[in-house]
Amino acid sequence: MPDALGHLTPDEFREVGHELIEWGARYLESLEEVPVVPSIAPGWLRDQLPPAAPEHPEPWPALLADLDRVILPAIRHWQSPRFMAYFPGNSSPAAVLGELAAAVLGQQGMLWSTSPASTELEQVTCDWLVSLLGLPDAFRHAGGQGGGAIQDGASTSTFVAAVAARHDATGGDPAELPRLRAYASVDAHSSVEKGIRLAGLAPGQLRLVEVDHLRRMRPDALAGAVEADLAQGLRPFLVTSTVGTTSFMAVDPVADIGALAQRHGIWHHVDAAMAGSAGADPALRPLVNDGLVTADSYCFDPHKWLLAGMDCDVLYVADRTKLQAAMSVVPEYLRNAASDSGEVVDFRDWGIPLGRRFRSLKLWFVLRSYGADGLRELVARGHALSLELASRVEAHPKLDLVVPAQLALVCVGHRSGDDGTQRLLDAVNATGAQVTHTRLEGRLVLRVSTGQARTEQRHLDAVWQAIDDSA
User: Is the pTM of the predicted complex or chain greater than 0.85?
Assistant: First the structure.
């Protein structure tokens, strides 16, 4: 039994741990059989639990039983092969075991001195990803001025990039803030606007730039916006390109945008949250990597398409000194000989939090467990599924492929209008699968995301059958 504090002995931990792993294996085995979306009302889970924490330790069998009684009925099954909504949040057994090892070790990786293993493994895994994805060498820790750091998500990375760009443009002078202007496409992720707000700027200081017929930012429209702001004595300081927009998986012309940014001394951030993983397949690199040599910062989410599990985003910078200048605060109680030597990286200077989890351990487990071959095959399969579904849509007399399918997303509209599209959406979700929607200039669009790691052709066939039957 646990002691008075609730601690398990090593033997008890071993026994409960085995039971929990077995529970997890049963869950993964059952995923295909249950509807993706839970059939509960808001507040259901709260009503199953007492209003206060227990006064005394509870037996572990009761905790494990409540995973089935309380938690599973309220779970949206993101790991299901029938989950084709939003973008995937792919976990994997390797990531789960890496998380377990990291939790056991309980590291606080704010400084090299507080966890050399966490710090140096983060450098190594970030550099491995540069090679895996074919990213610019400027993003490597080894032998350069840049490097990568693991954040919780692309929203945080986008905010950190905005703060670094703001500091680079103003030198930290708050009087300069009203003059600053940032730019992104009208289809950029909402985190771009949120990052601008959190960086102390008004929403109106972000210019949303028009897109072309493929939903890519128009470089000529960007140039016009920048030149207009310069003519008014304003300071363009940040432009965000998107590689794989959330609604349509559009890829902005990064090279052209980056060239303009370099001409005007504007920080160029590239948000590739979902699509960046496609670089694991060399055949897709020309689409997702073109122009990245112009980026001052770049981020992507291994937790979306590379099996790392929530949460794991990597933020790369070409010049780490600019990021550290914006982020570094060094109180006396954190000073130490290793940091003062300048020979180590302290990741507390690469983002918002001081405390940092050992996220690189699960990433290391994934990269070693699957290898480049396995991850390349995963990406290629998700891409192939989207192309196959898109070909069916294009051949259907009542359906439109709203934008060209690329990477792992298919956008479908019914030619009769929004009521017809809603009928498609409802029919798919009634099968127990899940797809979601967006809008294109007011038109309702059904999105089918094909990057879930467990999705196979037969799962997509079932979705197509529901679409075809309801069209």
Answer: yes
